[in-house]
Known about the structure:
Immunoglobulin-like, Peroxidase, domain 2, six-stranded antiparallel β-sheet, 16 helices, elongated, transmembrane helix, glycoprotein, oxidoreductase, transmembrane, Haem_peroxidase_sf
Amino acid sequence: MVWRISALVGILFACGQYGVAAQPTWPASTDELEDIIFLNTGYRARGFADPVTPCSTGVAPGRITAAEFIRTAFHDMASGNTYTGIGGLDGSIIFETGLAENVGAGFVTTLSLYAPFFSSRTSISDIIAAGVYTATRSCGGPIIPIRGGHKDATEAGPSGAIPLPQNALGTFKNQFLRVGYNATEMISFVACGHTLGGVHSPNFPDIVPPGTAPDDFAVFDTTSSTFDSRLPIEFVAGTTIDPLVRSNTKKNSDTVVFTSDTNNATIKSMQDPTTFANICKDMFQRMIEVVPAGVTLSDPVTAYEVKPYDIQLTLQDGASTIAFTGDVRIRTTQRSVAEVQLNYKDHTGATVANPISTIYKGDAKGFDSTFSFFSFDATLPAQDSISSFNVVVIVSGGTSEVFTNNGNGFKVDDSILYQAPQSCLDGSGKLTVVAAVRNTSSSSPSLSVVVKNPRSSVIIPALSTATAAMATQSAVGAYQLYSASYQFSGSQAQSAVFGVVAGSSSDNDKNTSWLPTACSPLSSSTPSSTPPTSSYSFQGCYTDAGGSRALSGAASYDDAMTVEKCAAACTQFQLFGLEYGRECYCGNTLDASSVIAGLSDCSMACSGNSNQRCGAASRLSTYKNLNYVAPVNTNITGYSYIGCYSEGTATRALSDGSTTSDAMTVKSCSTFCSGAAYFGLEYGRECYCGSKLQDGSTLQAATDCSMLCSGNTTEYCGLFGVCIDIDDSRVIHSHATVKLHRLELFITRRVDYQHIHSILPNIILVHVHVLPPNPHPQQLHLPRLRPRHTHLAPPHLSIHHLPVNDLHPLRPLLHRLPTPNAPCPAPATPPHAAAPATD
């Protein structure tokens, strides 16, 4: 159930994979099957569709795996009997691959591809059904609804049930009627089943004589790897290439079937593509829903709008806190996600005020849905813990959706916790598992292990389950620790699944992939140095396409950029963002032109860590510095702050003394100027003293003095910038401006940028103002200038922006430059000034 929050009302809706449908409630017995069906590529992809993507894919020339998937399902189902309730789609095909009626390598190939997906959570017959959906969709066919809950047979079904090419019409009708299809539906089913693939000469040499077809494979129609209506179209038109029509033997079963009703009415009606798709959807869905009596299938499996993954509570050292970790998947087919949060309730069911934030992890997609994944890692008080959570999805534009799992909340059971850090798998195959059981539970825990055991002449292994009582270890806080061991044999550990159970509570579906070879004990005391929580939180994907940078405080670039590197470079700012894979920007506020965008817009991997996302072109992956302390104008005993002032007209605003230091603070400057009437700070590291403010020094906007002190980034220490004029004789003039970390060139003639660079080799241009009558910027010879943003501002002003890493090396050079013939159109640099306090 989904509620969309607006100013006044909540709108209730639910949408499913196959049209309007109720959303599943998590967890469901079909969760593993849902992943297999819908996560084809991307983050957490299962890869089930890989063997049939594209549709023409085969394991060898003349093989189409998608056709083999569908044929396997039909042969598995065809031995069923709807009258007796025996057989159907039950996986019995795994015992029947040696029968003559199951000739061909396709069955063994298909089952071998299915084997890795078989587990205690998904039967092989569920996987066979999923193969029908996957093969049909990969080839452009309709969406086949899939229901989970198929039960696997333990032995082969009756032989002689599969329709063979030489059968008489009456035999065909009886065979199809036995599994629920009447004579008309028999025609439809065969047309649908033969839209893909063909007949192999080695299997039926009398139908396809060797050497008469490419790769000894005669296809059914001219689009043998597309799910379409070409087969009935070509049959009706008399242009068919179907070997089961054209065969000169009596094995022309498609002719027998397609012409079995009056005037070939059924096959003619299926020439229409929409009619063909709708009929085939019904035929295939009914095929995979023929099941033995007593088997109850689930509702059709639909893609969750929100689905949790790997939800884990882990008791930490000292037992005073619990780590709460996992992923949340959001369906993005019809929404653009900006941010995801978890609102949760504690162990008692009380709502906790502070939500849990998440970090974007990656995207995935299936045939009909797209998804984004978000990860969380929170530390909770063990006593309070967590009992459930709702998921808040903030979409582009700021609107929120709250997902409540059909009003149930997403449940989290803290009664028994699998302790991965204390568990291990040693080199001999011995598994040791530790669990923490809350002391309010009266049930004794046990370890459950499910292993796959190979079977002779059967491709799919057998499953066996073993349980072991867990022995008491020690009490820690609100929990009691238990442990148990299990000895694997051979390669069992690689595919084993295990879990811990205590009464009605469990923590299951664990695997051995990440277990260490040695177990670590859980300390009963809290560590003396607890690792800090994350120092930043993801804020979303923002645009950076305006005339000004979204974050304009500082910038850096690195071909090995990571989120951590950018965070370290921006510690003195409230926000930081990553763009275009390698760019890092810092600032305290986002520019007004920057708005939140969909997370999928920030799709570029970081150049230094492909598992992280670093924005994209004109898109900024934005983070908040959780340790940020807003800078202040520090109070100094004996002085009062009077404001941000410009330099004097012909001299420094404060000219009695000065000093510089890379460890400059307001306090150190006041100490240096002790006794002076005024002191001021500029450019983060410069300190000036004076008995008065010189002529021309005037009060400026407080925000103009925004540079932080080099020795204390929580204090302001003025500002610095430069402006350069270039005249006809290429003489460079300069004076100070209020442009922080900017260099401005006012160009009034055609100039050679290489000449500028030879004079000022360390400069990276930020602003280039091209004034008339100069040509358009593209006509200027500026080979090193690579502007990222351009806009025209009247009258005829083109502005190009590039970041400056550090202007400090430029400052001594500028002092040696001549006085400008005409002032640049910008005010002078203001110092940070303070005056003695007055009564």
